[in-house]
Amino acid sequence: MAELAASRLRAALALLQPRRFFLETWRTLDEQARAERAQHDGHELQPLVVLVTACVSLTLIQYLGSAFVFADLCDYLADQRHSVFFTDLRKGPHYVLWQLGYWASLRVLGYLVIPALVARHVLRERLREHGLCIAGLREAGPLVALLISGALLLVWAFSQLPAFQAYYPFYREAGRSYFDLGLWELCYVAQFFALEFFFRGFLVLGCRRSLGSHAAFVSLLPYCMIHFGKPWPETLGAIGAGLVFATLAQRTRSIASGFVIHAVIAVAMDLASLARLGQLPSVLFS
HSE-up of 280 (CA within 13 Å, CB side)? Predict the structure, then answer.
């Protein structure tokens, strides 16, 4: 058993060698894309549909996906319709959690629902072709575990920074109770699943045949931009992480590995910040 574990670790470390992980993967992808394009007659409409849909989704999220939009909506419904529900909601102890639930829901709509509908009913493709499967997760398991381990060490190191503690968790009352923390993390992880489908599934795998390995770089630009406003080390780190996640999705034809890594790290960042601040929950409900 120990020898098997050591063998898998050596294989994962070898796979992390940049030439093998990036260059060899990209070269193979380009060869496959050229072969598929040679069998495809006519103008390639897939990247047009994918990229225009991405623009629409990103615009929707930018202008309607803010927690402040939810606040304005609640205020309007409470004032104009004299709704007791919305009046009580905006005065209640979980109002901010409702706001963030709306924030996460709009991202699930823009990053997952709309692209999935377009992929299925406009492009006439299975969602599996856009990475919605667990293929390759077992093969990539040792590599995923290695990446998570390294990332967790960095998270704990950066969590001592005041800028980190001021930003995480987004839901500042997450430490009030296990209910608050659990419901918030559920919303948080759900929007990360949608994000992975959008950036590494719909954008990367959706443009794979037309752009080959360059599809990873197309997805990298908006992925970096959605991190603007976060602590600058995280934004810079998103460039490297986005390239790793996109390449991993291309290798495995699945978003599963990237989602697992992203979700674990995201939750760890919240927990590390709460731990550093001494605000981990101690009661079930509050």
Answer: 8
Peptide bond into 169 cis (omega under 30): yes
What lies within 8 Å, CB to CB, of 2 at 6+ separation is: none
Q: What is the DSSP code string of 140-163?
A: THHHHHHHHHHHHHHHHHHTTSHH
C-alpha span between 83 and 96 (Å, rounded)? 19
Of 8, 270, 5, 264, the residue nearest 148 (C-alpha): 264
Ordered mean pLDDT values, 10 residues apiece, the chain (286 residues): 58 65 87 84 81 97 92 84 77 91 96 97 94 80 85 92 90 95 97 97 92 93 91 86 91 91 94 95 90
> Integer distance in angstroms from the first to the last C-alpha of the chain?
46
Instruction: Tell me the pTM.
Output: 0.89
Distances 113 to 52, 63, 67, 106 between C-alpha atoms, Å: 15, 17, 19, 10
The tokens for 270 are 């919240």
